[in-house]
Design brief:
single chain; 307 residues; mainly alpha; 12 helices; 0% strand
Length: 307
């Protein structure tokens, strides 16, 4: 059984961490476009089931091939909790939330993720919260809100359930990022994310079983399967792995703050493929997000380090 790698985060994360997190946000940003096309041919819960049914075995194979590490019995409940938060609740709440609210509302609510991450990190004693970190999160969230224009938010009572589920999705994923940090001190990061997907994926498959049973694979066009392949490889295996790797080498709040780049990715895609305008508001949002990320990444991250 291999021992987990030991590495403590530097005071300022390496360029490779920022480059990897940027890649993950591109993968997640494109996911929303690809998923919309795939969902024209299959039910949302069926897509979630296919996503975890393929991704979980792949992650387990990669983890065993590289780590050869078997978690101790005391760590299994913690891996199950990570799976419940970051895989099961994250995916189910997001999919069900979109069913009951608008895509605009969801895009406006998603920047709450780093706020939840900072609060969870402070409450659980994983990260100290200093003025620079709070300022950085505020700038990043402000930049994301400039991009999505919160004035378009719909307070329609019919969307209240969906809005609440999207917020729960953000909260669960934020706590997932934070709770990874202590576990990553003794378990290799590949094994952590693989274990989370085994437990969380089992939950997704359980609630998605009826939708999966109704799926007719032969009736799906090739384009839908190419979309599923993208979602599994890039928006699941790679994106989740990158975020876990980055949490180990930086901080949960920095990883969460990078999520504010997703509206920018959407804006760039819309400008490139839909002919939409990329103007001064998008430029201002981008500048605010960059300033926020710089503030968040400029300090040490563990609870034992100063801020």
């Amino acid at each position: 059984m291999a021992a987990p790698e030991t590495a403590s985060p530097a005071a300022s994360p390496a360029r490779s961490v920022h480059a990897a997190l940027l890649s993950a946000q591109v993968f997640f940003g494109v996911f929303h476009v690809v998923a919309k096309a795939v969902l024209a041919h299959m039910e949302p819960l069926a897509l979630a089931a296919v996503r975890v049914a393929i991704a979980a075995p792949v992650m387990v194979w990669i983890a065993w091939r590289h780590d050869r590490f078997v978690p101790e019995r005391r760590d299994l409940p913690r891996l199950a909790l990570l799976g419940g938060l970051g895989v099961f609740a994250n995916q189910i709440f997001f999919i069900e939330g979109l069913r009951h609210t608008t895509a605009i509302n969801a895009s406006i609510l998603m920047p709450s993720l780093p706020v939840f991450a900072v609060a969870a990190g402070a409450l659980l004693g994983v990260e100290k919260v200093g003025a620079r970190r709070v300022l950085g999160i505020a700038l990043s969230v402000a930049g994301a809100l400039v991009l999505v224009n919160p004035m378009r938010f719909s307070g329609d009572g019919r969307a209240a359930l969906g809005n609440g589920l999207i917020l729960l999705n953000c909260c669960c994923y934020a706590v997932f990022l934070v709770l990874q940090r202590p576990l990553l001190r003794r378990i290799p990061w590949r094994t952590v994310i693989a274990g989370a997907f085994v437990f969380g994926g089992a939950g997704v498959l359980t609630v998605s079983a009826p939708a999966l049973a109704r799926l007719q694979p032969g009736a799906l066009p090739a384009s839908a399967w190419w979309g599923v392949a993208y979602i599994v490889v890039f928006a699941t295996v790679l994106a989740y792995a990158i975020n876990t790797w980055a949490v180990r080498r930086s901080s949960p709040s920095l990883v969460a703050a990078y999520g504010t780049l997703q509206p920018l990715v959407a804006a760039v895609l819309a400008a490139a493929f839909l002919g939409e305008h990329f103007g001064w508001a998008e430029g201002l949002g981008f500048a605010l997000i960059l300033a926020g990320l710089w503030q968040v990444s400029a300090r040490p991250v563990s609870a034992s380090e100063g801020v």
